[in-house]
């Protein structure tokens, strides 16, 4: 065993792409014997590889009274939620660990070999199958073994050109303490923060392994030392977070370049409510610590996805430890384990909501592009333009390199002393100036990338606001309390980072400017004194051009890669949307419910899509968005510019726009049919009434049959009055009845007010300024007041509910099953297994019962994965 004092993790890069990297998989385990015995209801129906329904509708047997079948008696039972969830992958009860490996981690290894850190989390309530998925059994090895096996196979394919060194560590985080599972000790290990290495575990042992088979022994040994103890929900419940980490060091044989990546596989402790486990005393404290870590983990993931500059890693040991395995250049897979049984109804629901949130981080990014101003076609145009500019820059670079090579030969060995002296002075000055210029260019590139992220996020904000306008009432609250604040926070964070970067740029810029003037003066003097030095002067100028050109090249590459991601996501969304649209339309048509208006609208969309596909690029003049132009240009004369990506906001001073707003607010709410008819007629259709004939463009006449009735009109008017009362009145979410369809109307008004507020404040930062635009960061104070509409929400991610003491009376606990893994071991060496008896009235007590301390590894069967009877005897 190799003992290290400090482990050197690979340094993660930017944290910008976190959201796009999370993949979420849900695994539903089969019913266990207990659940089968109780004949529980199934609360999960797996629809296909990506979808499941939680709490599906049940077909109740017909109810007869006096021999006559009665209408539905559903009022006696709780309504089925019938919630449909979509994930990257859904594995039903019949899917094996091999299937989970194929869906979850197989592809990830390619990213690992490319230099990305990778993490796999298994999340779920106690007994949901986390450890089975991660570790498995001898017959069904878990994904840790399968992944490592595949890793070794991958490595053997690269043996010719690379050398590999693989080390593994296995630790647990229990009650906010870190323990080494490969070198057990009752003394916790300390986490240390080193500026150059990041967070390290002092004294952690790392073992080198050569084949996957060695891993089995190691996991066996580690698992024996893991803290476990029985709960009501799982007789072998793991009460700690286990973190298995693989460090792969790759050295390229030809270039000697070395790279270190880390694969982390984290078996999280159960996310169940305290009531589910029936825990009290020490166990309750454990539960609280588990939830604390899970909450901290959820917060970090959300913040990373928001693009926050501050990520609260320090909130728990687990997140501190995983700092470089989350976000940044890390690929993350989240596996949510659930039980299909109605016994675990609440836990399953909570797990699915957690997983859906993680999945939504991704989806919200996908979605924001499809409706945003920059749609796929525009992104492709911009991308094409950037590619062209990149090629041009490369061509210029080549020429510059050739010129530089030529100029360095000029003068050769015949230079006079005066020339040599001038040359030395110029070179020294050029060195200083060059270093400053490189620094300035690097800062400007980072700032442009931030501006791009801000640009994309601003559009996401608008998109979410737009969604709120169209969404159903059910989705409204979530959009207002979660989505909009999240997008908003992200925009603000980017703006803040951008402003910070601007001040640094200004500092370096003034030094660069001063040194540039000094250098220019020196060059002028040199030319005056020694005109034959013209080549040297020329060379200095070429060098600067070359630097700028190189930096522009790099920037274009970065922008292209970001835009490419956007295009891919957008294209995927478009395809999905069209498929769905087609399906819905054809279904309606099949039932004879597709009115001509809808058919026309449908055909219009399909035609649009077709023409989008046929765009020819060669003869199109690219009208690049000025914002994108700024982002993709490194102009040293105007290095900073305030952000102004709050486009498309209604201009409150513009009478036309005001009229339009008013029109929107006075047409009030029209029925869907009205909207369709409007689309046909291309003009507002304000007061359609039942039976009103409407002439369509194709001369067909249709009659509205389902216009709103007068009370709707009244309610729309009432809402309109509320909306007109101003932001103070609508700040209070409580005043709006979320069940009232018209609330969308008021909420849309809020968004407009928000947007208006954000667009009014002036950017105060000064020279050198390119455009007199607004900066969102300076609107923070104003916006914060306005945004109290997000009200009840404290703007913090709420991923996991912390466990609170609940009305649970210690309930009957079955006698310990014939399972060995779930032995309880306190860190101080005493036993946790304090279950008394097997009677119905048995209770869970604490250590006070005083059973003899036994270490878990002394009690388990030879194989790591078997959970066979423990070797100790429980006192009866
Ligand atoms: N997909 C599956 N197929 C067969 N058995 C399974 C499956 N998933 C879980 N099990 C069984 O269910 C029981 C509980 O699973 P496991 O110990 O993995 O739960 P867990 O989520 O890790 O619980 P805890 O958080 O309490 O440690 C085990 O006996 C395990 O063998």
TrEMBL record:
Main location as per UniProt: cytoplasm
Binding site for ATP: 124-131
Comp. bias intervals (Basic and acidic residues): 855-864
UniProt entry tagged with the keyword Transmembrane: no
Family: Belongs to the TRAFAC class myosin-kinesin ATPase superfamily. Kinesin family.
PANTHER family reported for this sequence: CENTROMERE PROTEIN E (PTHR47968), KINESIN MOTOR DOMAIN-CONTAINING PROTEIN (PTHR47968:SF65)
Protein name per Swiss-Prot or TrEMBL: Kinesin-like protein KIF18A isoform X1
Keywords assigned by UniProt, alphabetized: ATP-binding, Coiled coil, Cytoplasm, Cytoskeleton, Motor protein, Nucleotide-binding
One GO CC annotation: microtubule
Biased composition (Polar residues): 831-846
InterPro entries xrefs: Kinesin-like_fam, Kinesin_motor_dom, Kinesin_motor_dom_sf, P-loop_NTPase
GO annotation, biological process: microtubule-based movement
Compartments reported by the entry: Cytoplasm, Cytoskeleton
Residues covered by the Kinesin motor domain: 21-361
Superkingdom, taxonomy of origin: Eukaryota
The organism's taxonomic lineage, starting at the top: Eukaryota, Metazoa, Ecdysozoa, Arthropoda, Hexapoda
Pfam families named among the record's database cross-references: Kinesin
Region named Disordered: 814-876
Gene assigned in the entry: LOC112047246
Coiled-coil portions: 376-410
PROSITE patterns in the cross-refs: KINESIN_MOTOR_2
């Amino acid at each position: 065993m190799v003992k290290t004092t400090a482990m050197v993790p690979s340094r993660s890069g930017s944290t910008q792409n976190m959201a796009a990297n999370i993949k979420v998989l849900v695994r539903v385990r089969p019913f266990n014997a207990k659940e089968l015995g109780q004949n529980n209801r199934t609360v999960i129906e797996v629809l296909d590889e990506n979808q499941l329904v939680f709490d599906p509708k049940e077909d109740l047997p017909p109810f007869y009274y006096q021999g006559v079948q009665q209408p539905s008696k559903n009022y006696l039972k709780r309504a089925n939620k019938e919630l449909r969830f979509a994930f990257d992958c859904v594995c039903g009860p019949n899917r094996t660990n091999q299937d989970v490996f194929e869906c979850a981690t197989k592809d990830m290894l390619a990213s690992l070999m490319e230099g990305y850190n990778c993490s796999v989390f298994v999340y779920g309530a106690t007994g949901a199958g986390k450890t089975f998925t991660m570790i498995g059994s001898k017959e069904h090895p878990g994904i840790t073994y399968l992944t490592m096996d595949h890793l070794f196979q991958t490595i053997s394919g690269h043996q010719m050109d690379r050398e590999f060194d693989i080390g593994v560590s296995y630790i647990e985080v229990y009650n906010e303490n870190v323990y080494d599972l490969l070198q057990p000790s009752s003394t916790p290990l300390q986490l240390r923060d080193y500026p150059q290495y990041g967070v390290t575990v002092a004294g952690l042992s790392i073992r080198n392994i050569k084949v996957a088979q060695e891993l089995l022994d190691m996991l066996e040994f580690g698992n024996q030392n893991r803290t476990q103890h029985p709960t009501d929900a799982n007789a072998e419940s793991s009460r700690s977070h286990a973190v298995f980490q693989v460090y792969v060091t790759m050295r390229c044989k030809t270039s000697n370049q070395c790279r270190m990546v880390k694969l982390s596989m984290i078996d999280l402790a159960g996310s169940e409510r305290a009531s589910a486990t029936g825990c009290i005393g020490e166990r309750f404290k454990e539960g609280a610590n588990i939830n604390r870590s899970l909450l901290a983990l959820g917060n970090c993931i959300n913040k990373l996805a928001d693009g926050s500059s501050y990520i609260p890693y320090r909130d728990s040991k687990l997140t501190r430890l995983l700092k470089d395995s989350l976000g940044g250049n890390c690929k993350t897979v989240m596996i949510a384990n659930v039980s299909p049984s109605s016994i675990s109804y609440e836990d399953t629901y909570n797990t699915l909501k957690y997983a859906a949130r993680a999945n939504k981080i991704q989806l919200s990014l996908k979605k924001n592009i499809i409706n945003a101003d920059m749609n796929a076609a525009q992104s492709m145009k911009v991308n094409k333009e950037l590619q062209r500019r990149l090629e041009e820059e490369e061509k210029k670079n080549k020429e510059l390199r050739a010129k530089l090579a030529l100029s360095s030969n000029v003068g050769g060995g015949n230079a006079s002393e005066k020339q040599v002296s001038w040359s030395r002075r110029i070179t020294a000055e050029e060195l200083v100036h060059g270093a400053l210029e490189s620094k300035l260019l690097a800062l400007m590139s980072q700032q442009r990338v931030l501006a791009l992220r801000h640009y994309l996020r601003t559009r996401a904000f608008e998109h979410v606001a737009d969604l709120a306008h169209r969404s159903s009432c059910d989705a409204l609250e979530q959009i207002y309390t979660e989505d909009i604040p999240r997008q908003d926070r992200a925009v603000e964070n980017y703006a803040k980072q951008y402003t910070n970067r601007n001040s640094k740029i200004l500092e370096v810029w003034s030094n660069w400017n001063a040194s540039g003037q000094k250098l220019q003066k020196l060059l002028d003097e040199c030319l005056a004194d020694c005109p034959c030095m013209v080549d040297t002067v020329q060379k200095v100028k070429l060098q600067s051009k070359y630097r700028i050109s190189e930096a522009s090249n790099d920037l274009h590459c970065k922008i292209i890669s970001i835009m490419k991601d956007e295009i891919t996501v957008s294209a995927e969304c478009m395809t999905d949307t069209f498929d769905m649209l087609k399906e819905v339309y054809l279904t309606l048509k099949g039932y004879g419910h597709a009115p001509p208006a809808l058919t026309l609208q449908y055909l219009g969309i399909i035609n649009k899509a077709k023409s989008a596909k046929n765009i020819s690029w060669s003869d199109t003049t690219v009208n690049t968005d000025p914002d994108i132009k700024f982002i993709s240009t490194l102009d040293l004369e105007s290095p900073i510019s305030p952000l102004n990506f709050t486009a498309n906001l209604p201009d409150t001073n513009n009478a036309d726009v005001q009229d339009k707003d008013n029109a929107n607010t006075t047409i009030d709410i029209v029925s869907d049919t009205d909207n369709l008819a409007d689309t046909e007629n291309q003009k507002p259709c304000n007061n359609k009434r039942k039976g009103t004939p409407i002439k369509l463009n194709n001369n067909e006449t249709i009659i509205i049959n389902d216009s709103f009735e007068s009370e709707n009109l009244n309610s729309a008017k009432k809402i309109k009055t509320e909306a007109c009362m101003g932001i103070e009145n609508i700040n209070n979410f409580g005043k709006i009845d979320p069940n009232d369809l018209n609330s969308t109307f008021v909420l849309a008004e809020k968004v407009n007010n928000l947007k208006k507020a954000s667009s009014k404040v002036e950017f105060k930062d000064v020279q050198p300024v390119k455009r007199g635009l607004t900066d969102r960061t300076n609107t923070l104070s104003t916006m914060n007041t306005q945004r109290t509409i997000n009200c009840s929400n404290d703007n913090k991610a709420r991923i996991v509910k912390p466990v609170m003491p609940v009305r649970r009376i210690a309930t009957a606990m079955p006698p310990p099953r014939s399972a060995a893994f779930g032995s309880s071991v306190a860190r101080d060496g005493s036993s946790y297994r304090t279950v008394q008896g097997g009677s119905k009235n048995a209770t869970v007590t604490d250590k006070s019962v005083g059973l003899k301390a036994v270490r878990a590894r002394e009690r388990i069967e030879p194989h790591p994965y078997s959970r066979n009877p423990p070797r100790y005897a429980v006192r009866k």
